[in-house]
Design brief:
- It contains 14 helices and 10 strands.
- Helices cover about 45% and strands about 15% of the residues.
- It starts with 6 loop residues before the first helix and ends in an 18-residue tail after the last helix.
- The protein has 2 domains: about 5-145 and about 250-345, D-Maltodextrin-Binding Protein, domain 2; about 145-240, D-Maltodextrin-Binding Protein, domain 2 (3-Layer(aba) Sandwich).
- Helix 5 (about 105-115) packs across helix 6.
- Strands 7-6-8-5-9 form a 5-stranded mixed sheet, with helices on both faces. The chain has a 3-stranded antiparallel sheet with strand order 3-10-4.
- By secondary structure, the protein is α/β, with parallel strands linked by helices.
- It is found in: Periplasm.
- Part of a binding-protein-dependent transport system for aliphatic sulfonates. Putative binding protein.
- One of its GO terms (cellular component) is membrane.
- Keywords: Signal, Transport.
């Protein structure tokens, strides 16, 4: 069902002048990024969605090709691609859209840095990791997602009842992911330190196998894998991210795209918001669309959809401050090599 991300082919698609730069930072970013991807790449099928068409935006003058990077599990961009409304909105001005699928956020942002894409969406961690690696990123909007859409779980028969009980235990999570920060924050709230547990850095698929096999004591995971763990593996939540981690998503754009095509970016975000509004009001329809894409039962996906939030919102000081807290925490555990100022990567052009 899933196709393998071909690194050699990826670099061949980049302009020659960007290849050397991209290769220098790709290894670091891609290693972190594989743990962040909810699913590996699989091809899109527009006929699988039953989402109704929204109203198109006014045509935009002087628009060329807009290149969008996406992950299959990024609900909104996957829906946007399948609906074709963005293409319709831009067609009157001679614009077109090119979609490139990525297995994770970091290689997507490296492609943006190399000039291969203009726009993308990731979770909290990839832009932090990219910025720390010297890759320029620009936040243009955020998606609230939901703190209830990620949690630390244990097996239903586990004696572990609260976060304090994790001391000396092995906890699985994807390195550098949103749940990596959840673990840090949860331990601090319980008077424990990161060194009080043994991290097991595993991708969601490997973590599930280790969790069900009893090779780890707890698992920090996000939806839809969280819903899968609850429904299929009988996982019990001991702590979700409420009050501990924001669990947001971010829309990012290349600085050159922001400067050269601000109206096209505005139209793009308008279309993203229309799809987001539809998804917010139609969790069952979204679940049906995602089910064949992700290989997960629609009923489980609907559970995940009902506890997440949607939105395309401007960056506020509060949001930037919280993203900075995540960056600082990652520096404290030496996940990123230097301190960064998140506000320096926030676009002021919207």
């Amino acid at each position: 069902m899933f196709t393998q991300f071909n690194v050699r082919s990826f670099f061949q698609t980049l302009p020659k002048r960007f290849r050397q730069q991209a290769k220098k930072s790709f290894t670091f970013l891609f290693t972190i990024g594989l743990g962040l991807s909810l699913v590996a790449a699989c091809s899109s099928n527009p006929s699988t969605t039953s989402a109704p068409s929204g109203n198109t935006a006014s045509p935009v003058a002087n628009v060329g090709a807009i290149r969008i990077g996406y992950q299959k599990a990024a609900t909104i961009l996957s829906l946007l691609k399948s609906r074709g409304e963005l293409e319709k909105a831009l067609a009157g001005a001679g614009g077109s859209v090119t979609w490139t699928e990525f297995p994770a956020g970091p290689p997507m942002l490296e492609a943006m840095n190399a000039g291969a894409i203009d726009f993308g969406y990731t979770g909290e961690s990839p832009p932090i990791i990219a910025q720390a690696a010297g890759t320029p990123v620009r936040y243009v909007a955020y998606d609230p997602w939901s703190p209830k859409a990620e949690a630390i779980v244990v097996r239903k028969d586990s004696p572990i009842q609260k976060i304090q009980d994790l001391k000396g235990k092995k906890v699985a999570f994807a390195k550098g992911s949103n749940t990596n920060y959840l673990v840090i924050s949860a331990l601090q709230s319980a008077g424990l330190s990161y060194s009080d547990i043994t991290p097991a850095f595993l991708t969601p698929a490997d973590a599930r196998a280790a969790f069900e096999g009893g090779n780890v004591d707890a698992w920090a995971i996000w939806d839809p894998y969280l819903a899968v763990a609850e429904e299929s593996a009988g996982a019990r939540i001991i702590q979700d991210a409420t009050g501990l981690a924001p669990n947001r998503g971010y829309y990012l754009a290349a600085q050159s795209f922001i400067e050269k095509q601000p109206q096209a970016l505005k139209t793009l975000l308008e279309q993203v918001k229309k799809v987001s509004d539809f998804a917010k009001s139609n969790p069952a329809e979204v679940a049906k669309f995602l089910s064949p894409e992700l290989g997960i039962d629609a009923a489980i996906l609907e559970k995940a959809e009902k506890r997440r939030e949607y939105g395309v919102l401007p960056l506020t000081n509060e949001v930037i401050t919280k993203q900075q807290a995540i960056a600082d925490a990652f520096h404290d555990i030496k996940l990123i090599p230097k301190k960064i100022a998140v506000k320096e990567a926030v676009s002021n052009g919207l």
